[in-house]
């Protein structure tokens, strides 16, 4: 009869300790957060920028997003109307219109004064400081563009239903912030705490108040 070989006590304890030492969030995988942003009357808020700041375990290295750091001028409008970029990004502004455009901003996060340039020409600007930047054109007063410069890799903007899903977030306590150019807030953002479950998707409905944009 074969007698099973017992693991030495020291080896057993070392193995058990190693298993216990694996953090629960690492074992279960990253979390996800699905956010719906609406006004008090129930209308969805499109192009609201949602940012998540985990209390611990944030990503290391440079921040990169899955879209280009480009804001074109097309059909006498900035496109996209709202662009999210990481701090330090250089944004290109190609002119796709038949008319000339300029770009200016008096925002605290970036002072910009790009003079008139024509079709198929491109200008650029580097956004070094996190914050919100409002853009305009000196020739076309109706043109409005917004760049949200962020310092977290967990950021995206809502769709036409006011919804957005951000994945690959470390589980645990975090703060979620919402920014929109028309948001009524002393700080310009809405912020609240959230607890994310590792390996699961958490849903959060956020109600905000907007003011008219002139």
TrEMBL record:
Residues 1-27 form the signal peptide. The keyword Signal applies. InterPro entries: Cupredoxin. Keywords: Signal. This is Methylamine utilization protein.
